[in-house]
Amino acid sequence: MEALIKIENLCVKYEEKVALDGIDLIINEGEKIGIIGPNGAGKSTLLLAIKGLIKFTGKISFPGIRRSDVGLVFQNPDIQLFMPTVFDDVAFGPINQNLTETEVKVRVKESLEKVGLSGFEKRPPHHLSEGEKKKVAIATVLSMKPSVYLFDEPTTGLDPLSKYEITKILCSIDRTMLIATHDLELISKVTDRTIILNDGKLMAEGYTQDILTNKELLARNKLYPLEQLLKCR
Fold first, then answer.
1. CA–CA dist 169, 132 (Å, integer)
2. CA separation for the pair 75, 77 (Å, rounded)
3. Starting from the edge strand earliest in sequence, which strands make up the sheet with 57-61, in order?
4. What pLDDT digit, counting tens, does each position of 53-67 carry?
5. What stretch of H or E contains 186?
6. Using an 8 Å Cβ cutoff, are 9 and 44 in contact?
7. Are 12 and 49 in contact (CB under 8 A)?
8. What average pLDDT does range 172-196 have in this prediction?
9. What would the mean pLDDT of 112-129 be, rounded to a whole number?
10. What are phi and psi of 65, to 5 degrees?
């Protein structure tokens, strides 16, 4: 497998708090990687560093892609949705990629179909439900066709049906992705490999099934074990 992103001795500090402490990680093409850990473990910080949105020390290199080929879906969709209509939000990225008007319309149509929101083009994003907002936020990144997707807590705050629908969408994306979440059920269904962060340190990494069935490891890192694992592929 080709390495798309290499992380070496990554460290992040917020004032006096160490958010990430010496993280080493290689992200290979086609991998779906879960990032789990308790609150304050550094999960979101890792995604922000990869995207280049915060200061860090150490090295993040992109041997297989450009950093602009990495798309981030924030935990709070209101950060991502700022245009008057759903169409405008989903079209924003492709327009800034200098695509033609026809290409932009195709990208918007395809992306909204992918998330099950065809016909929502003229809707104001602030009038949507939380689940619908999350789907539109995903569509804004889908429309740019990145090589790597970063998802920060994609199912947080959703009702069971919306959570199921978001999980199906993530399963259907045939690209490299990292998912930072507390939702171990989501991780069990979508990802191949999982890492555990705790207090800013990488505590474990391995096959998702091995990680999620290691009750002692999960308990040491303040995580609740799943009794049954399901895979979407």
1. 12
2. 6
3. 17-28, 3-14, 57-61
4. 999 999 999 998 999
5. helix 184-190
6. no
7. yes
8. 96
9. 97
10. -145, 180
Is residue 107 classed exposed, middle or buried when 0-12, 13-18 and 19+ CB atoms within 10 A define those classes? buried
At which residue do the structure tokens 């990292």 appear?
Answer: 178
> What is the DSSP-derived secondary structure letter of residue 225?
P
Can you tell me the distance from the alpha carbon of 195 to that of 116, in angstroms, rounded to the nearest whole number? Answer: 30
pTM of the entire predicted model: 0.94
Record the tokens describing residue 20, joined without a space: 């990430």
114 close to 139: Cβ distance less than 8 angstroms:
yes
Question: Which tokens sit at 31?
Answer: 């991998």
Q: pLDDT at residue 39 above 80?
A: yes
Task: Return the DSSP state at 185.
Answer: H
Nearest to 89 by CA among 47, 127, 51: 127
What average pLDDT does the chain have?
95
Buried b (16+ CB within 10 A) or exposed e, 51-87: beebebeeebebebbeeebbbbbbbebeebbeeeebb
Backbone φ, ψ for residue 103 (5° rounding): -65, -40
Residue 18, Cβ density class (10 Å: 0-12 exposed, 13-18 middle, ≥19 buried): middle
Burial of 108 (0-12, 13-18, 19+ CB in 10 A): buried
The phi, psi pair for 22, rounded to 5°, reads: 70, 45
Q: What is the DSSP letter of 10?
A: E
CA distance 79 to 87: 16
